């Protein structure tokens, strides 16, 4: 598993373009 940060405008499309199999979503600022 490799982590990758994507932009806020369209994160699902950006993740799909990078071949992501899963996503992690923060509901607030990560600590």
Distance between the termini: 21 Å
Number of domains: 1
List SSEs in N-to-C order: H
Gyration radius, in Å: 10 Å
Describe the largest sheet: none
Q: How many helices? A: 1
Structural description of this entry:
There is one protein chain. With 31 residues, this protein is mainly α. The protein has one domain (1-31). Helices cover 23% and strands 0% of the residues. The protein has one helix and no strands. The protein has one helix at residues 11-17. It starts with 10 loop residues before the first helix and ends in a 14-residue tail after the last helix. The mean pLDDT is 85.
Layout of SSEs?
Layout: H1 11-17
Provide a compact summary of the structure:
With 31 residues, the protein is mainly α.
Keywords, please?
1 helix, about 30 residues, globular, about 0% strand, mainly alpha
